[in-house]
Write a sequence for this structure.
């Protein structure tokens, strides 16, 4: 199963995360299938590749709880449902 989850990088106590599509059995910082965004919890900076995320979700990728909250704040799920209707 493909998951959309966070991949940690950065210095100690100054973590940033990349939102990646990765096999659910792979390790957290393993090689992703695709990098789809960036999240910095210290500054709440978020950059998303929305078309790529929508494509992966339509293919059946499951976001983790944290990634789901980030995507809900960015209204990505509304775009997924809009593409499913049309």
């Amino acid at each position: 199963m493909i998951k959309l989850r966070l991949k940690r990088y950065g210095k100690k106590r100054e973590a940033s995360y990349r939102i990646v599509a990765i096999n659910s059995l792979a390790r957290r910082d393993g090689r992703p299938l695709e990098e789809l965004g960036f999240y910095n919890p210290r500054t709440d900076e978020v950059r998303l590749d929305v078309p790529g995320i929508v494509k992966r979700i339509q293919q059946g990728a499951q976001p983790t709880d944290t990634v789901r909250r980030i995507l809900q704040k960015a209204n990505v799920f509304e775009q997924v449902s809009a593409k499913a209707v049309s």
Q: What stands out?
A: The first strand starts at residue 2 and ends at 11. The radius of gyration is 13 Å.
